[in-house]
Amino acid sequence: GHETGWGRSEIRHADGSPSFNLFGIKATGNWKGKVAEITTTEYIDGEPRKVTAKFRAYDSYADSFRDYAQLISQSPRYGQVMEQLGSVQGFASGLQKAGYATDPQYAAKLSRAINTTLSLQRAQG
Q1: pTM above 0.85, yes or no
Q2: 42, 26 contact by CB (below 8 A)
Q3: Is the domain defined by 60-124 classed in CATH 2.30.38.10?
Q4: Among 3, 15, 42, 63, the one annotated catalytic
Q5: How many CB atoms lie under 10 A from the CB of residue 56?
Q6: Any catalytic annotation for residue 15?
Q7: Hey, where are the domains in the chain?
């Protein structure tokens, strides 16, 4: 997989501030929000090359999660995942089963991140 982010390195702005991009979503041409530019090594024809990748950046993990939920709600591949949204653990393991992440700890990490986000939101309420 080509995921950047989870389990390896958090996507940060050049000044070190977090991009809150939980899901390693790239910023494509139609993205209107903030962007974090990351220099990463990708293998092109077996040769390591430094490339600059543009990732979406958010103001909070909650924003990241909302954007992501919106994104995958439009994708038939993740249809079963969306039915699990009532359960964080189910949602996270559904994503893993759908082949989103290669990290076997992905579901657990994601569940924790989402639960933290939700409990923070409730606390701020």
Answers
A1: no
A2: no
A3: no
A4: 42
A5: 25
A6: no
A7: 60-124
